[in-house]
Amino acid sequence: MAARSLRSVLFLLALGCSTSGRTPSDEVSVHVEKLEIDPQTGSPVLVLSEDGGVRTLALWIGFAEASSIASEMEQIHPPRPNTHDLLQQVIADLGGRVERVVVTELRESTYYAVLRVLANGKLMEIDARPSDAIAVALRVAAPLFVRESLFEKSHEEPDGSDEGQETRLEPGGDSPSATVRS
Question: CATH classification of 2-17+34-156 is 3.10.690.10, yes or no?
Answer without folding.
Answer: yes
